[in-house]
Amino acid sequence: MKYPILLLAGRDLERRDLLKALDPNGKYTSKVALPFLGKTVIEWVVEAFLKSKYVDDVYILGLTEKDVKINDPVHFIPVDPCSRISQKYKAGLDYITKAGKLTDKLIFCSGDCPGIQAEAIDQFIEAVHERKGYDFVIGGVPEEILAAVIPNHKRGVGRFKDINILQGEIAYFSPRVINELQDVIDSFTDPELRNKKSFWRTLWLVAKRPSSWSKIIKIVLKIGTLKDAAIAVSRAFKIKADCVVIEDPGLAMDMDLPEDYDKIRQYVAKIHNIEIT
What we know:
Elements (H helix, E strand, L loop, with lengths): L2 E6 L8 H6 L12 E2 L2 E2 H11 L3 E7 L13 E3 L7 H14 L8 E4 L7 H13 L5 E7 H5 L9 E3 L4 E10 L1 H6 L1 H7 L9 H10 L5 H8 L5 H12 L3 E5 L12 H14 L6
Parallel strand pairs: 1-4, 1-6, 4-5, 7-10
Antiparallel strand pairs: 2-3, 6-9, 7-9, 8-9
Helix pairs in contact: 9-10
């Protein structure tokens, strides 16, 4: 079975520091359109997905063919580039449904993680396929995996009894979640959650629901596991949720800060045997 993949692109209402530093003249519409080792940032992501044995078509949310150069075959879904993440998800769901391409799995990924590899994508999709009846599954990367290649990564870390984990850039959402929980999606994808304290802000969102408290208390006391966190999210929002652990640092390498660009560029050059001049 092959699945449609939706890549999130677009831009913020206010240009972030990354674009201000790397594109002071405003040449590029979005960070995913920045030049990166002979391609655009998003081309590396598209290429990885098209190498996956489980991927059908790739769809871009938030940009048009005039905004970004992509040589591989992709589809562009019309949606306001500055729209909220939940609005992009809904536009993707509606477009795929209308095109008759909707399967039981709708997978989204950020367009600014050029270090992602096809093997990690396959592993995630296989894990999602095994989880029948789930509403939300996210990929997570062990913190030591990313720290080995980017020691000072400045990403928010979820610390559990069994694992320290970083939120990955790939996720599965059921149509029900996309249609009914847009406010929740926007809360969890708030750019502010990217800072060092992001895990605790995420935990607070879940803790607002009393049904999750027994698991939240375990996590706060540092005796909770990653599974406890998944159960807390499931209970809080009346969904079936899980996290798949994938040991690929590229899955947790998105570009939000100016210093991210060069660190990720060096990593991608290494894994693809590209000499940086």
